[in-house]
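HOLO CASE FILE
Compound: nicotinamide-adenine-dinucleotide
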Amino acid sequence: MRSIGHFIGGKEVKGTSGRTADVYQPMTGDVQAKVALASKDEVRAAVENAKAAQPAWAATNPQRRVRVLMKFLELVARDNEEMAELLAREHGKTIPDARGDIMRGVEVVEFALGIPHLMKGEYTEGAGPGIDLYSIRQPLGVVAGITPFNFPAMIPMWKFAPAIACGNAFILKPSERDPGVPMKLAELMLEAGLPPGILNVVNGDKEAVDAILDDRDISAVGFVGSSSIAQYIYERSAATGKRCQCFGGAKNHLIVMPDADMNQAVDALMGAAYGAAGERCMAVSVAVPVGKTTADRLMEKLIPRVESLKIGPSTDPNADYGPLVTKEALQRVRNYVDVGIKEGATLAVDGRGFKMQGYENGFYMGGCLFDNVTKDMRIYKEEIFGPVLSVVRAHDFDEALSLPSDHEYGNGVAIFTRDGDSAREFAAKVNVGMVGINVPIPVPVAYFSFGGWKRSGFGDLNQYGTDSVRFYTKAKTVTSRWPSGVKEGASFTMPTS
Ligand code: NAD
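Model generated. Tokens follow.
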């Protein structure tokens, strides 16, 4: 059986903690690899390597740093299919969807090629008598990223590409459920010319995470995962004075106004609710039709579409979605459906009994659709992270606006309408970080930035875009005066301009 270690100091090293976790192949249900779970000492070894390598990397001029990323992009393109297959095999998503996972990471690497421009400082000549003032941006040193299972290519690239372009060394702690692609990305960065020690991957669980959080040589942590862990990481990082940004879970609503193009709205809902088996932080898990007629028309169109979803193994190019990531995830989602029934929601389509012929041990689940879901139900309040869509009927626009605004999560939201006034008012007033207007999964392109509000995001600054440069650098301002022509003498008052 394949065993996966860590990537430290420019090479794969075996785990020494004696602890491992199973990596499943969700489409068959088999264990396909064992991944090492790092101890505190192994994390420390990675930090030592990073710390030793970082000063020379920071001193390398910015164009040379991003040339490594340029070469890395070529290598990702070369090995794209191999990586997409590996990703699909470990995660369960379909191969076309795995290609998208890689591509949305690649877009951020492309953005990072322009970071030398964004690191430029500012300069004011003559800010006072004989005084010039300038600001510069310097890397933080050693920084870390802790990432979730659901985008094992995209989110690691969102983290390490800007950090490394800014001159930092990086410790990546990917999800222990699908560590294969993150390890491969580190190998490709080395092949692209990155000095050993600048990108390290430590595989592991809570023990490795806690070692990262407590390590005083790590200056910043970027986390993506569920909200309770995000909050824990945010709070614990503060104890060692780390800069920290933690992105959490979601409950993304899609509002369907009475004037919406219903076919377009239904297509959008199908892809956004059931794509990747609903295991996306920007998945739509709540549909909000406005008015009874809209709701009835929506349900009439949605039911047959959900019933005819094509579920298949990750290798089936025609499948709409594949299995869930683990047996536990499958059980958790099934339990939520049971809870919804008990709470009194109407289960219009029941996918719990779905079995994939020839893959009976895989972690498959059919699409589920709930109608008449209300605000007080757990299936509305909590993140399910599976192929389950809840329909909450709203009487009017104001109620539709208040649902996502009052929800404890605030990652993404969408409105489908033909009316510019409603769309504009919705975008301005809704209390959510990323808004789509007739767009179901409004993940901003790489030169904007990604981040949710409320319990979907802890800390300051978003991921990628110009925010990532601010997050991975610190600003220094230099006030200078050259002595010639300056009057001598001590001054005891506060200098003013
Ligand atoms: P998770 O919170 O279980 O794990 C995320 C990371 O934290 C992993 O690396 C894991 O090893 C580590 N971890 C898990 N338990 C820990 C603990 N007790 N202490 C310390 N570290 C721990 O999340 P997941 O199941 O891998 O991913 C799914 C979640 O991620 C969903 O909630 C989804 O909405 C969220 N997500 C959010 C975004 C975003 O940008 N907001 C993007 C993708 C996924």
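CASE NOTES: Residues 2-248+456-478 form a domain with the Aldehyde Dehydrogenase; Chain A, domain 1 fold (CATH 3.40.605.10). The chain has 16 helices and 23 strands.
CLOSED: yes
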